[in-house]
């Protein structure tokens, strides 16, 4: 009886071993693991979908996916880098609004030999994927300038800048860029007509601050608003509405967070859409995908010569009516053929 | 004045002291805050004549509206010995988010307003439950629930907004007698609560518990019931502030309430409400909120940017806390 069992085992064992080896041979040695550090800035409605899109594409690719939130906090961003390194991810995508900590992150990831894609805020040693913030700012400023020229012949009483100092250089590019773009069209607006206030990119912060600035300029009847993002600009619009001066104000935003959907403020004349929630399409197509295939692209860490360029899409409020809200956009993006961008799908062509 | 105190020093009074003793309680605080406010307005008006304009009045009164309502809730918690309710930002936004959500679903405005206030009351009741059942320090509990509530809201939504074309939003942008619609509920609330707090049984229970809870218990006042009542009423008032916030603001994130915390606490302390409990005037909140809401507007007229507002409000808070400490020491003597 014992001999029989041994014979049976001797017969089965090679077969099991062969099957196991075959199984191992057909399975990849490991699944590619992508780490995603989302920005975590609560006031921006695109930050969560930005992670959702990356997750969906990574899943389609058969990769493992780990997501952490930077909480718009440099200490949290640093801790997240440590976690990704400890978790042995193969590549990282990050949106980090607190750029001051990027050199520290770069040193950590370089030591761990983990390639990193950074969205919108360039860092030496990180693949840059994103918008040219300065160009986007200038485009928005020029669009606003054209409206001011048509409506008021550039005879403007006040240009409000809703700054977001916490965003650092991005604020300078976008808000400063908008002022530059406005000057391209309306070069004769006196410098003393430009007034800045801290809006922190949030309506709840920008509105009271703008209210005080507007009260301090009670005679201003032709007011333009530029700023870091749609929320900061909307704060000024809201302040004007509260002071009964809504018809005196024309605003143009950045990032497109509040220019689409069915609850758009009529005094927001337009915005520059980046379709931030869909950045993962660019990052995975041009950088992460090739890395997963063992064909890492050459390092391009300069915003002027990026690894993948996201096209800005300036839209007027009228044009924006035809663009679906963020949830619908994400749905359509994920249903589209691989590599299709939201710019392809939604940006008005004329 | 509706200033209430549980301690009355009995000493032989000089003529000056006798005069002061005949004045309504809290007159000193009222005089100092009103004086500071008038001085600020005069100096700002001299610096720039256009400070004295209707636009300035509107800017200040919009700022006062929500801060004032929250300050009443905060004062009730403080006077009753609950120290501070640090969960107000979450209570405010939770209520505002529910209001926006219901309005999007075409629920009648009256129902929405009641729902917003109820959400705040439930939030306050939840805080009281933890404080009473777990016997924990209210300030720690509300700090924790503020974090928890904020995090839960993040999971549910990113931005909320009442429909712009609704009558509800139109009310938030409108005026009555030249002042914002949302300013008037704040004034009415301060007057009503200030009147009834020292004149009703429940109001006096709140004050007694805050002044000396052991003495209050010996008088048969239930500390637990009072805690539940105070936190629920304060929560309902915070919910009311959420309703006003929702109708007067554009899109708001779960973190949007944080900006109110410092001015609310500063207003309550400046109004003479003791952090140790048992003492404070609700009516004086109108003066302290008015003064603190004028500071940021005035700074802009002086050409100082908005970052200076936090500096000044922080400094005023330190001064107010110092005065509160000095008052407490004086009462002990």
Strand portion of chain A: 15-25%
CATH architecture of the largest domain in chain A: 3-Layer(aba) Sandwich
On the 0 to 100 scale, the average pLDDT of chain B is: 87
Helix content of chain A: 40-55%
Overall number of strands of chain B: 2
Question: Could you say what the CATH topology of chain B is called?
Answer: ABC transporter involved in vitamin B12 uptake, BtuC
How many domain regions of chain B?
A: 1
Oligomer: heterodimer
Blueprint (SSEs and pairs):
The complex is a heterodimer of chains A (350) and B (333).
Chain A: H1 2-26, E1 33-38, H2 47-61, E2 64-69, H3 74-86, E3 91-94, H4 102-112, E4 116-119, E5 127-130, H5 133-152, E6 158-163, H6 169-185, E7 194-198, H7 203-215, E8 223-227, H8 230-242, E9 249-255, E10 268-273, H9 279-292, E11 301-302, E12 305-306, E13 308-309, E14 313-316, H10 317-320, H11 326-335, H12 342-346
Parallel strand pairs in A: 1-2, 1-3, 3-4, 4-5, 5-13, 6-7, 6-8, 8-9, 9-10
Antiparallel strand pairs in A: 10-14, 11-12
Helix pairs in contact in A: 2-9, 2-11, 3-4, 5-6, 7-8
Chain B: H1 15-22, H2 27-47, H3 54-79, H4 88-104, H5 109-133, H6 138-156, H7 167-173, E1 175-176, E2 179-180, H8 183-196, H9 201-211, H10 213-218, H11 223-248, H12 261-270, H13 284-301, H14 307-332
Antiparallel strand pairs in B: 1-2
Give a short summary of the structure.
The complex is a heterodimer of chains A (350) and B (333). By secondary structure, chain A is α/β, with parallel strands linked by helices.
Please characterize this protein's 3D structure.
Chain A is α/β, with parallel strands linked by helices and 350 residues long. Chain A has 2 domains: 33-131 and 276-310, Rossmann fold (3-Layer(aba) Sandwich), CATH 3.40.50.2300; 133-273, Rossmann fold (3-Layer(aba) Sandwich). Helices cover 46% and strands 18% of the residues of chain A. Chain A is built from 12 helices and 14 strands. Chain A has a 6-stranded parallel β-sheet with strand order 2-1-3-4-5-13, with helices on both faces. Chain A has a 6-stranded mixed β-sheet with strand order 7-6-8-9-10-14, sandwiched between helices. In chain A, helix 8 links the parallel strand 8 (223-227) and strand 9. The termini of chain A are far apart. With 333 residues, chain B is an all-alpha fold. Chain B has a single domain, classed as ABC transporter involved in vitamin B12 uptake, BtuC (Orthogonal Bundle). Helix content of chain B is 70%, strand content 1%. Chain B has 14 helices and 2 strands. Chain B has helices spanning 15-22, 27-47, 54-79, 88-104, 109-133, 138-156, 167-173, 183-196, 201-211, 213-218, 223-248, 261-270, 284-301, 307-332, and strands spanning 175-176, 179-180. Chain B has a two-stranded antiparallel sheet with strand order 1-2. In chain B, strand 1 (175-176) and strand 2 form a beta hairpin. Chain B is globular, with a radius of gyration of 20 Å. Classes of the chains: A alpha/beta (350), B mainly alpha (333). At the A-B interface, strand 7, helix 7 and helix 8 of A face helix 3 and helix 13 of B.
């Amino acid at each position: 009886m014992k001999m029989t069992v041994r014979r049976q085992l001797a017969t089965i064992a090679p077969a099991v071993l062969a099957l196991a080896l075959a199984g191992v041979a057909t399975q990849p040695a490991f699944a590619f693991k992508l780490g995603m550090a989302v920005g975590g800035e609560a006031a921006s409605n695109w930050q969560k979908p930005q992670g959702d899109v990356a997750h969906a594409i990574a899943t389609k690719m058969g990769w493992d996916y780990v997501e952490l939130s930077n909480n718009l906090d440099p200490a949290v961003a640093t801790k997240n880098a440590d976690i990704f390194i400890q978790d042995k991810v193969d590549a990282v995508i990050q949106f980090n609004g607190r750029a001051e900590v990027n050199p520290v992150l770069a040193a950590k990831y370089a030591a761990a030999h983990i390639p990193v894609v950074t969205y919108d805020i360039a860092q030496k040693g990180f693949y840059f994927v994103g918008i040219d913030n300065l160009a986007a700012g200038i485009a928005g400023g020029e669009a606003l300038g054209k409206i001011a020229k048509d409506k008021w012949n550039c005879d403007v009483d006040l240009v409000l800048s809703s700054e977001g100092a916490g965003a650092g250089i991005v604020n300078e590019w976008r808000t400063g860029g908008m002022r530059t773009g406005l000057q391209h069209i309306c070069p004769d607006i006196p410098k003393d007509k430009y007034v800045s206030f801290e809006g922190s990119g949030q309506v709840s912060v920008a509105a009271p601050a703008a209210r005080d600035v507007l009260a301090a300029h009670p005679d201003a009847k032709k007011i333009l608003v530029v700023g870091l993002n749609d929320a900061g600009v909307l704060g000024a619009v809201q302040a004007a509405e509260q002071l009964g001066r809504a018809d005196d104000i024309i605003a143009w935003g950045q990032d497109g967070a509040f220019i689409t959907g069915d609850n758009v403020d009529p005094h927001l004349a337009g915005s520059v859409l980046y379709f931030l929630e869909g950045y993962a399409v660019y990052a995975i197509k041009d950088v992460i995908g090739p890395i997963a295939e063992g064909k890492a692209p050459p390092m391009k860490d300069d915003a002027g010569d990026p690894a993948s360029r996201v096209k800005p899409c300036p839209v007027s409020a009228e044009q924006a009516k035809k663009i679906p809200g963020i949830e619908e956009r994400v749905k359509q993006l994920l249903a589209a053929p691989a590599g299709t961008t939201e710019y392809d799908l939604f940006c008005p062509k004329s | 004045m509706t200033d209430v105190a549980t301690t009355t020093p009995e000493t032989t009074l000089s003529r000056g002291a006798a005069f002061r003793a005949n004045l309504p309680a809290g007159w000193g605080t009222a005089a100092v805050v009103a004086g500071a406010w008038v001085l600020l307005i005069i100096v700002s008006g001299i610096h720039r004549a256009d400070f004295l304009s209707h636009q300035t009045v509107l800017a200040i009164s919009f700022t006062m509206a929500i801060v004032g309502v929250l300050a009443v809730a905060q004062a009730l918690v403080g006077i009753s010995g609950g120290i501070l309710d640090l969960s107000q930002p979450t209570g405010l936004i939770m209520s505002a988010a529910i209001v926006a959500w219901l309005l999007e679903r075409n629920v009648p405005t009256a129902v929405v307003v009641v729902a917003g206030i109820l959400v705040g009351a439930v939030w306050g009741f939840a805080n009281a439950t933890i404080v009473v059942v777990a016997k924990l320090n209210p300030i720690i509990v509300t700090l924790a629930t503020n974090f928890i509530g904020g995090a839960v809201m993040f999971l549910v939504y990113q931005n909320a907004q009442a429909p712009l074309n609704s009558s509800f939003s139109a009310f938030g942008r409108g005026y009555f007698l030249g002042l914002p619609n949302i300013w008037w509920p704040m004034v009415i609330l301060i007057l009503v609560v200030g009147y009834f707090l020292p004149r009703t049984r429940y109001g006096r229970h709140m004050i007694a518990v805050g002044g000396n809870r052991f003495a209050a218990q010996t008088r048969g006042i239930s500390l637990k019931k009072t805690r539940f009542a105070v936190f629920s009423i304060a929560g309902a008032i915070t919910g009311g502030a959420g309703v006003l916030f929702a109708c007067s603001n554009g899109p708001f994130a779960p973190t949007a309430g944080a900006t109110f915390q410092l001015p609310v606490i500063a207003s309550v302390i400046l109004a003479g409400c003791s952090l140790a409990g048992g003492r404070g005037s609700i009516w004086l909140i109108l003066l302290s909120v008015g003064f603190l809401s004028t500071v940021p507007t005035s700074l802009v007229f002086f050409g100082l940017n908005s970052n200076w507002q936090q500096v000044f409000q922080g400094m005023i808070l330190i001064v107010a806390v110092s005065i509160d400490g000095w008052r407490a020491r004086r009462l002990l003597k």
